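Before the break, one more example. Copy the sequence into your notebook; we will annotate it together after we see the structure.
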Amino acid sequence: MTAFSQTKVATTRPVMNYATLKRGIDIVISALLLILFAPLMLAIALCIKATDGGSILFW
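Here is what the structure looks like once it is written out:
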């Protein structure tokens, strides 16, 4: 019998599972991209309002 057959491997549960971690990363990246592109979206909305004269959002 070898020494390896006697060793026990300690198994630990991850603190956070993969799906929860991925969800958190998705939310953070989405929020950062919204903040980053907000000035561009505002400029586009103002251009639409200035050239068309109508509503910016179509309801």
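The mean pLDDT is 84. Helices lie at 18-52. Try to locate both features in your own notes.
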